[in-house]
Design a protein that fits this description.
The chain has 471 residues and is of the alpha/beta class. The chain has two domains: 21-200 and 413-468, Aminopeptidase, CATH 3.40.630.10; 222-370, Alpha-Beta Plaits (2-Layer Sandwich). Helix content is 36%, strand content 23%. It is built from 14 helices and 19 strands. It has helices at 2-16, 27-40, 51-64, 139-154, 179-186, 245-258, 267-276, 282-293, 298-305, 308-314, 350-361, 385-398, 415-418, 449-468, and strands at residues 72-77, 80-90, 100-105, 124-126, 129-131, 163-168, 195-198, 202-205, 211-220, 222-231, 235-236, 317-325, 331-332, 335-344, 367-370, 403-409, 425-427, 432-434, 446-448. A six-stranded mixed beta sheet has the order 1-2-6-3-7-17. Helix 2 packs across helix 4 (139-154) and helix 4 packs across helix 14 (449-468). The longest helix is centred in the C-terminal third of the chain and has 20 residues, at 449-468. The protein is globular, with a radius of gyration of 24 Å. 41% of the residues are buried.
């Protein structure tokens, strides 16, 4: 009878499905999960949320762990009261050793409840994933940073070098108040560090969940928006004319769609593809090697561009993201406007891309202008062995046999504000995700539960290594 009951229980559990199972956790993981839940469920969208509130809640947890209030530095500006942040200083033993900065952004991309399968601002665990807006970008890393300092304080850990944490707002929206930019311009001494560790790096899993590679971000593209605009006197729709603002704009967008910027390699992307090539299937491997040898190889280029991850770092990319045209259903349009978002390869300016778009469109009726400038092009940080070495050595211990690469981000992170002011910033997370992007910036954003907890362990250990190394 007991055997039958046990079998019956197993069958019922299987029928219940993995979505009902909660991940077993240790006490410290349970505490981390509560912190993570609080942060994910604090709405930090630009339209209706508050980064300031999220920063206050994280500050309260750090203070409760014993970090003195004098080492907690909240900040906000009067005209952006809900876009504040927090800088935390965890003092080291050696005042002469330069600090290491941990960087993370609190804000998230907008999310509409009616579009999502689940409430985007409720942390939900199903099928081995956490779901919710920001569960990956970037509240996973922010939660890990806060949790790491809480654990260090509870352990009475005293590092050689000071550790700093900057939690900022505005990373997700060009033109919004950006906390990292504010700190770099107004509080440079407060965040001064030998280098910073930020989002942007990570690994990829195959469909079965097996790690394919783990990357460290070294450099990123420049994100720049352009406005395409056509104006026209308009008129009654019963008297159509060839000179139609919508048609001009549509033709312009079609030309941009068909244009491909030249393939370009930087030291980082050449290193990335060189390391990747031996691990890929023969056809893909041969295409990579051919393009490395000759960036003008159109056959190899076309083959690799089918992979959106490769396509995003082979060259500058421009894509239409917003449309606005016309004023009445029975009138010829007087105005047609589109936003084109470009991710610009390092070494190319925003103005050079504007001129290229103008030439590609080839229509004087279409005016191309640069919208708000998020940041100037940032040089990639150096391939510093004191940064890359410990990260790659620890990763080899935690994920033996997994290929490690240095990668350029398609952009853009807040590292673009820090590297130019002398704080070289690297994307290092130890977080693995799926090749489909896991809904980041889209619907039903998710992160594997195992990936989150593995990243937590990795960064906790790595920051200790950095904190105790010689300056």
């Amino acid at each position: 009878m007991l055997k039958k009951i046990a079998i019956s229980t197993l069958i019922m559990a299987a029928m219940a499905g993995p979505g009902l199972a909660q991940t077993p956790t240790s006490p410290d993981q349970t505490a981390f999960r509560a912190l993570y839940k609080e942060l994910v469920e604090t709405n930090t969208t630009l339209s209706s949320g508050s980064c300031t509130l999220a920063a206050e809640r994280m500050g309260a947890r750090l203070k409760a762990a014993g970090i003195p209030e004098a080492d907690l530095h909240p900040f906000a500006v009067p005209d952006h009261p809900k876009e504040g942040g927090l800088v935390v200083v965890y003092p080291g033993r050696d005042p002469k050793a330069k600090a290491v900065l941990m960087l993370g952004h609190l804000d998230v991309v907008e999310a509409k409840r009616e579009d999502w399968t689940r409430d985007p601002f409720t942390l939900i665990e199903e099928y081995g994933f956490f779901y919710g807006r920001g569960v990956a970008d970037d509240k996973a890393m922010v939660s890990i940073w806060v949790d790491t300092l809480v654990r260090y304080k509870q352990e009475n850990y005293k590092p050689k070098r000071t550790l700093k944490l900057a939690l900022t707002c505005g990373e997700e929206t060009n033109g919004a108040f950006n906390g990292a930019q504010y700190l770099a311009s107004n509080k440079r001494d407060l965040i001064d560090a030998a280098f910073a560790v930020n989002e942007g790096g990570g690994g990829m899993l195959d469909p079965a969940g097996k790690p394919l590679f783990l990357g460290i971000q070294v450099g990123e593209k420049l994100s720049q928006n352009y406005t395409l605009e056509v104006t026209n006197p308009g008129g009654h729709s019963s008297r159509p004319l060839p000179d139609n603002a919508i048609y001009h704009l549509a033709s312009a967008l079609t030309r941009i769609q068909g244009y491909r910027f030249p393939v370009t390699f930087s030291d980082t992307t050449r290193d990335f593809f060189t390391r990747m090539a031996p691990t890929r299937p023969p056809e893909e491997r041969d295409a990579i090697l051919a393009l490395l040898k000759s960036p003008q190889d159109e056959v190899a280029r076309a083959s690799l561009e089918r992979n959106p991850d490769y396509n995003s770092i082979l060259h500058t990319n421009c894509v239409a993201t917003l449309l606005d045209a016309g004023h009445a259903t029975n009138a010829l349009p007087q105005r047609a406007r589109a936003n084109v978002n470009c991710r610009i390869f390092p070494g190319t300016s925003a103005e050079a891309v504007r001129l290229t778009l103008t030439d590609v469109i080839g229509d004087e009726k279409v005016k191309v202008s640069i919208r708000e400038v998020r940041n100037d092009p940032a040089p990639p940080p150096p391939l510093n062995p004191k940064v890359l070495g410990p990260a790659e050595k620890l990763a080899a211990q935690m994920w033996p046999g997994v290929l490690q690469v240095r990668a350029m981000s398609a952009g853009a992170t807040d590292g673009a504000f820090l590297t130019p002011v002398g704080i070289p910033t690297y994307g290092i997370s130890g977080e693995f995700g799926g090749s489909d992007g896991d809904g980041v910036h889209g619907l039903n954003e998710r992160i594997r539960v195992k990936s989150l907890f593995d990243s937590r362990d990795y960064l906790y250990k790595l920051m200790k290594i950095y904190a105790d190394q010689a300056d």
